[in-house]
Sequence to fold (846 residues):
Amino acid sequence: MRKYILKRLLQSVVILFFVAFIIYALMRCLPTSYIEAMARQKSMQAGSKSYEEWMEQLTVMYNMDGSIVSGYFKWLGQMLTGNFGDSWRWTVPVLQKFNDTVWLSFAMGLISFVLEILIAVPLGIIAATKQYSKTDYTISVIALAGISLPTFFFASLLKLVFSVKLGWFDLYGLVGRSYDQLSAFGQIMDKANHLVLPIITLVVVSMGGLMRYTRTNMLEVLNADYIRTARAKGLSERKVIYHHAFRNTLIPLVTIIGGSLPGLFGGALITETLFGIPGIGFASYYSMVAGDIPFSMFYLVFISILTLLGNLIADILYAVVDPRVRIA
Amino acid sequence: MDEYKDKMEPSTEEVREEQYSLSDDRRVKVLSPGALVAKRFFRNRLAVTGMVILVIMFAFSFIGGVLSPYQQDQKFYRIDSQAKDYAGVLYNDEYRYTVGDADLFKSSVHAQALKAIIQGNDSFEYNGISYTLEKLADEVYTVSSGGNVIGIASKELVNSSTQEAMPFDFTLAAFTAQSGGEKSFSAGGKEYDLSEDGVITDASGSEVAYISKYIVKAVMSDVFFTREFKDDLIAAVESGEKSFKYTGEDGVEAEYILKYDADTKSYDVKQEIDTKVFDTYSAPSKDHWLGTDRNGMDMLTRLMYGGRISLMIGFIVVFLESFLGILMGGISGYFGGWVDGLIMRIVDVFYCIPSMPIIIILGAAMDAANMPSLRRMIYLMLILGVLGWAGVARLVRGQILSLREQEFMTATEACGIAPSRRIFRHLIPNVIPQLIVYMTMGLGETIILEATLSFLGLGVRFPFASWGNIINDVNDTFVLTNYWFIWIPAGVLLLITVLAFNIVGDGLRDAFDPKMKR
Fold:
């Protein structure tokens, strides 16, 4: 087991090396960059140096001289020593900006993830036990609709209904206008109020997949021989489903849920941007659009690590919860 | 699929059954695997509904665009009356000073002159210089010093009708003539006529100035007022009307709105003219069933063309990624060994690359490079395809790994069939069912991805319409609040189409699965 994990980790490091290189090369190849925009802006100022001179100076300053390969190794070397540089767009150290934003995203992600599980798993099981009934069709269609729903459209609909028509929530932002005048408890409630719509969006858009996954696995389990045996023994349907079948459905569920845990740190790029929630997704969106290489690089590599970690956790959990699976 | 349908026709089958004897082999209905799949698919009511929706969507997008009387980039106009700032009218009820000799008639002297006028004095002294006041007419006084007229203090003013300012001699001569009731005067070597209501015309009969308490100034420097317009305007001001109509020399009647501004004691005159403007955000009507968008284009037509682009991008991207995926997955799964290892590591790398952020970065880069819309769309498809093939490759490889070990593959090898033929003729067709399901679901996903990018302004660009960039307007809160018809139809179409793709994919998966009894 330890050997397997070690092997997978080493593999992940190699993959990460190439992924980071591809991302770095892409960022360097961008036709116009933040540096150019900045040089242009600086050369516009009265009595300033020419655009070319600024360009030259800034290129050296931001370590953008030299080839892509050497630049990549320089970046890699600095990153390994824990120096991620300063974000250009936010003008603070990358790690500081990351620390400022990631916890909000994590909190939002965790709440919606828990809600998602609480809604999707029971519904998936109900759908499977009543296969081909009206309930099953309804739940299946809801699940598919959730998958098919474009995030931005659903978010706009929520805004129209709850913010514009009913006026319950603000359209944008994490805090209201009178945030500074509120008490400590009031401030928490204010933030919670602003997070309601983003969390609803996240839950609705992502619960479909889990619902279908639960249903498929539950159906598979219900067709297994040991369920027939349990029924043949004369156990009540309740006991068959919630005692024998559900436990076995848990195996793939735990695997997929464990695998999605690292993703909670990755933030929700679209949802956060649409609702103006200053989480990591929001920060990275504006960094990427502005061509802020240090922060974007950091974010992209971070996301890649989360993906690899998620896969690894899923594979390990699979072996841990299911004694039939042996990993070499 | 039609040929299968015929076999399923119950009425013909019944007829046939009666004709064959019990032992006849033809009594047993033989269905090919394909027919069985079709049969299972068409029994699934939900999947058929999805299929019907898709057919409708395709018809809407591809045929609808042809039937629509409008073009996708056809702009519509409407006549709108706009009030523009046109003129300002000032009623003068204070003494104003026309300066002849700037050295002597300074502003400090103005105040002294005013004081003398109010007190009724004929002369005044200031700083040791004596000035004489002479009354020309009611509220018109000349100020002289040392026998020369150095300035005029008056409530009525000589206003130039042209852009040029009037010389002092002219003003003085005009006032003198008016007070004496004369019909003409000369100034600067030229003869001028003066009418009773104070209009001064030169020898050629064109108006050069007028004497009035009203000062009419145009807001725009290139606007020139005719005498009649000014008379009408002043008449309206004097009678306290709020608006009046005037037909200009070009025969266009316009309405003018007067508004008194107490701070500056002046009237603002606004001209209401009918202007042709883009028919933006007009509500649904008989001509435009879903109204018009920000650029005054017909919404329904845009939706049709947008559907074309969205569906086409979806198909091209999915075919591209399937092509790459089948190629790489097929090679990897069939050959195994180091080829497999290498390709699978590449797949791992592509699987790990966060595609959404990468596309956003590339979109922003294409923005910065000012790429033409069409080229941008092609690049977008290429990027989406290249980033998406890893999943297909994994699927194909996994399938091939299990199929490779089966007897029919050993048979192909024994027959000496070339590897490429073995892969693409015998292996791949067996992967097709899973692939079709994957592609159908992938279509929906790609359409959402493209729409999301277009929504963020990083995907398909104007003048091309796509469902995503139609909804993009909702970023403007005013549109979100007031114009539902701009973004809700596009969103609903998007939702329904993707939902239909997913339902059909689901139905196909069930239909391909031989374990499914229904």
About this structure: The domain at 94-325 of chain A is CATH 1.10.3720.10 (MetI-like fold). DSSP finds 13 helices and no strands in chain A. The first helix of chain A runs from residue 2 to 29.
